[in-house]
Each structure stands twice: as structure tokens, then as C-alpha cells.
Amino acid sequence: MKIKFMMIAALMLLGAGAARAQYAHFPVAGTIEYEKTVHVKNFMKRHLSMSKDEGFDRTYIEQLMAKAPDSYVFKNKMMFNGSESRYEPIKEERTGIMRSIMWFGFDYETTYYKDIKNGVFRSVADYVGSNILTQDSLLKVKWKITDEYRTIAGYNCRRANGVVLDSVFIVAFYTDEIPLSSGPGAFHGLPGMILGVAVPEQHYNIYATKVTFVQPQVMAEMGKKKDKPMTRAELKTFLYDRMRVGDWNTEQQFNFLLTGLYL
Fold first, then answer.
1. Can you give the pLDDT at residue 76?
2. What digits encode the pLDDT tens for the residues 39-88?
3. DSSP letter at 167?
4. Is 108 within 8 Å of 127 (Cβ atoms)?
5. Exposure string (b/e) for 43-74, b if CB count within 10 Å is 16 or more?
6. Dihedrals φ, ψ of 151, to 5°?
7. Closest CA to 183 of 199, 226, 192
8. 107, 113, 70: which is closest to 91 by C-alpha?
9. What are the C-alpha distances in Å from 41 to residues 95, 249, 259?
10. Helix (H) or strand (E) holding 46
11. pLDDT digits (tens, 9 = 90+) for 218-247
């Protein structure tokens, strides 16, 4: 009888432990803090290499580059609950030189909303002081999962290499311990939450620094009532005319900027 009682007690403890483990390792709601590190001087060099201007503009950019930091960190926060997530900037005061060069497009202080279950994507970006509201389907990414692992914010993450927008190479690290197939910015599509991503072409990487399990409200609304939503294709047409491609900017510069806005 005593042995039978001990076996029952052990099974109950194992069951309770499994329930706790399930709750601990597979959260369906919470917040994640991220840091986006932009390699500022490399970004500016890339921008300059695509410019066709050899005069004042190039000299001015070179002067700014000499004063710019090698890198700069932008902080963001994601709220996720069920199949929805919202990724938004944490507002901070910029240093003097960063205020002067933000127009390069290192970061557009974009807020992103994704509903993975229903395939809904929305974003609102600050482009030269104006809101750009995008509403479209989820961005398509071709992923190839590898056998490389890394610990990020205390989670075991697996590497995946991806291609987005036909030719932009990206590297992501996701954890299946947070089962929502989402991530920072427009990224998604892996069997778990993306806690790290690098976009070499855009000279930045994003890594999670803290995960907190709460029940946040994930707001789908964004922008102002006067903001007109555009698809990605409509945004491309709108900006192509506004940026005077061929006169003020080259095709390369335009595509470089557009990639930053899309992602």
C-alpha cells in the first residue's frame, strides 16, 4: 500500500511539473524588448556609393559621415497575444548628429501590426516628418532552416537563412519555445518567434534583450484618420515620383530606401 501511494504521489508531481513546463516554455502572450543596431558609417558609405552626384552633396555627406558614430542603437518593443503582434519604437531623445542624419533612413520609427492567422499586415512609418501607412498581406520570405543554434535573451534559438523581396538576404534566429510565427519588423514565417535578425544589405541587426509574460492588449489601429493606407506596390509608385528618381536619386538609392521601409 505504501509503495502504491508513493507511486501515485510521484505521478502527480510529474504531471504538475509537466503542466508548469508547458506554461513556462510555450507562452501565447507577452512582451519582448529588442535592440536594433545600425552600422551608421557603413550605411552612409553604401548610400554614397550609389549616388551619381560628385559635387556639393557628396562633400556634404562625407562631412556628416566624419561626425557620425560607427553604430547606433534603436530600442523597440513587441506585444504579442494569440496570433497578433505589434512592434513599435521606444521613444528616446536622439543625439545632435543623429537628429541631423536621420533622413538617411537608418530607421523610420515604424510601428508594425501583424495578424498571422488572418494574413494581415499594417505599418506606419515616419518618412521625412510625414506618416506613411501601409496595409497589405504578410511579406513573403523564403526560409531555409539550418543546424546552427544561439542563445538569445535566455532562449535557445535556431538559425534560418532567408530571402525577401526577391534578392535581399537575411539571417534570423527563432525559438519554438514561443510558438507564435512572428518577429520584429515585417519578419515572420518560422516555426516560432524570431528573437534575432540581421539584414547585411541594410547594415543592421536586431536582437531581443528581454521577454516578459503578460497579457498585453495588441492594438491593430495605427496612424491618423487622415492617413491614406497604401499597398506596397502603391507605396513604391508614390515614392518613385516624390523622390524624383533619375533626377535627384538613382534607382539603386530608391531601391535601398524602399527595402528599409518594407522591412
1. 97
2. 999 998 888 888 766 655 778 888 888 899 999 999 999 999 999 999 99
3. T
4. yes
5. bbebbbeeeeeeeeeeeebeeebeebeebbeb
6. -90, 125
7. 192
8. 107
9. 16, 20, 18
10. helix 40-49
11. 998 887 878 889 999 999 999 888 877 767
Model-level pTM?
0.87
Decide: helix, strand or coil at residue 228. coil
- Backbone phi, psi, residue 165, to 5°: 55, 40
The closest alpha carbon to 242, from 128, 135, 133, 136, belongs to 128
CA distance 55 to 144: 44
The predicted pLDDT at position 251 comes to 86
Paired strand residues for 210: 33
Q: Give pLDDT, residue 53.
A: 63
Nearest alpha-carbon partner for 254 in 245, 230, 263, 204: 245
Cell readout for 200 is: 547585411
Residue written as cell 521625412? 128
Residue 42: all three cell numbers together: 557603413
* pLDDT of 187 above 90: yes
Does residue 160 have a pLDDT over 80? yes
Please name which of 166, 165, 162 lies closest in space to residue 136, comparing C-alpha atoms: 165
Three-state secondary structure along 90-150? Answer: CCCCCCHHHHHHHHHCCCCCCEEEEECCCCEEEEEEEECCEEEEEEEECCCEEEEEEEEEE
* Of residues 221, 256, 227, 226, the one with CA closest to residue 239: 256
